[in-house]
Amino acid sequence: MTRSIDYGNLMHRAMRGLIRSVLEEVAEHGLPGAHHFFITFDTTAPGVEIADWLHERYPGEMTVVLQNWFTGLEVTEEGFSVTLNFGNQPEPLVIPFDALRTFVDPSVEFGLRFETQEDDEDEEEEEEGEEALSDDGTPPAPRPEAEVVSLDKFRKT
Q1: Which single residue of 40, 93, 114, 120 could bond 63 by disulfide (Cβ 3.0 to 4.6 Å)?
Q2: Helix (H, G, I), strand (E, B) or coil at 23
Q3: Of 116, 111, 139, which Cα lies nearest the Cα of 126?
Q4: What is residue 68's predicted lDDT score, i.e. its pLDDT?
């Protein structure tokens, strides 16, 4: 049996640790300056807890913004919980780090993307001229520009 180093999983673990550290800092001291976060996550991932109406509206993927109004940000080893305002209605969310797809801070043009095998297949389809659609059949919203680190290209399958 040949041993190998799984750099992809090691980097994903390190990236989740970085996000955990940033969120812990924000939970303790608040958002500094113009910093704010766009966090996209898989709404079907194990451990995700969102209101039923949010799950119906976002059946596969959801992006939340931590910026002006959020409360109760708590960070654990496994993920974070926060209450966000949706149309003047506060909603608690629980998001495991394993559910994350992207983490972007557009104020400093920083971003991380967690790719999966499905993402690789979607990119191949887009390169062939097919437009990827979101779960509700509409074109995805443009993402903020950021420097993205992609590590799955180094992962052995």
Answers
A1: 40
A2: helix
A3: 139
A4: 83
- Between CA 36 and CA 110 the distance in angstroms is 11
Structure tokens at 86: 């949706």
What are the Cα distances from residue 43, in Å, to 55, 90, 93, 141? 7, 18, 10, 17
CA 38 to chain centre: 8
Beta bridge partners of 64: 39
> What number of other Cβ atoms are within 10 A of residue 138's Cβ?
8
The DSSP secondary structure of 35-84, one letter per residue, reads --EEEEEETTSTT-B--HHHHHHSSSEEEEEESSSEEEEEE-SSEEEEEE
Q: How far apart are CA 28 and CA 5, in angstroms?
A: 35
> 70 vs 127, which has greater pLDDT?
70
Residue that is written with structure tokens 């939970």 in the block: 27
pLDDT 10s digits, 3-57 = 889 888 889 899 999 999 999 999 999 999 999 999 999 999 999 999 999 999 9
Identify the CA nearest to 84 among candidates 95, 72, 101, 76. Answer: 72
- In whole angstroms, give the CA distance from residue 117 to residue 74: 30
